Amino acid sequence: MLNLVLFGPPGAGKGTQAELLIERFGLLHLSTGDLLRSEIAAGTELGVQAKKFMDKGELVSDDIVIEMIKSKLDANQDAKGIIFDGFPRTVAQAEAFDVVLVDYNAEVKGMLSLEVEKDELVKRLLNRGKDSGRADDQEQSIIENRIKIYNEKTSPLKKYYNNQSKLHKVEGMGSVEEIAARLVAVVEKL
C-alpha cells in the first residue's frame, strides 16, 4: 500500500495537488478535516466526542483522530494507497500512526513536503479568501498567525520523517502543472 503524507503550510496547494495525485495513481484521499466533518454529520460516537472538543474551540484529541483514521483504514484495506492530507499534524500523532500502521502491515512510504515562500503563501491565501469567502483567508494577520503556528507546531514533522529517510521536499512555486509534475516524479520513485 502506497501511503503518502502530503505536507505543507496553509496555502501550499495540498488540496489541489492531492486531487491530481489521486487521479494519477488511483489513491484514496484522507483529509482529517473532511473526516471529522463526516463523522460529526453521521452522528457517530467518535463524531460526538470530536464535536465536544470543536465546540469549545479546542483541537480534537489525538486518540479520537487516530481512531477515525483506523476506522477509515479498516474500511479501505483493498486500496492501492492513501494520501493523508492534514494528518499527522504533530510528532506524537506521527508516532502513534506508525504504531497503527504496523497492525495493517503498512507504513508511510514518504512525506511530500510542498516548499513555498511565505510571501507567496500569503498572496495565495488572500486570493483564495476572495474566491471562497473563507474568513480565515481574508485577513493578513490571521494568515500570518496560521503560518507561524504551522512553523512552530507542525513543521517539526519534517525532521521526524527526515530521520526515517522519508522526507521529500518538493518545490511548491510555479504553476499547478509544474508542481504536479515534480510531485509525480517523486511518487513514481516510491
Molecular structure report:
With 190 residues, this protein is an alpha/beta fold. The mean pLDDT is 88. The chain is built from nine helices and five strands, in the order βαβαααβαβαααβα. The chain is globular, with a radius of gyration of 16 Å.
Give start-end ranges of low-pLDDT stretches. none
Helix content: 55-70%
- Secondary-structure element order, as H and E? EHEHHHEHEHHHEH
CA-based shape: globular
Query: What kind of oligomer do you see?
Result: single chain
- The span between the termini is 11 Å
SSE diagram, text form:
Layout: E1 2-7, H1 14-25, E2 28-31, H2 32-42, H3 45-55, H4 62-75, E3 81-85, H5 91-103, E4 108-115, H6 118-132, H7 140-154, H8 157-162, E5 167-171, H9 176-189
Parallel strand pairs: 1-3, 1-4, 2-3, 4-5
What labels would you give this structure?
5 strands; 9 helices; five-stranded parallel β-sheet; alpha/beta; 190 residues
Outline of this structure?
The chain is of the alpha/beta class. It has helices at 14-25, 32-42, 45-55, 62-75, 91-103, 118-132, 140-154, 157-162, 176-189, and strands spanning 2-7, 28-31, 81-85, 108-115, 167-171.
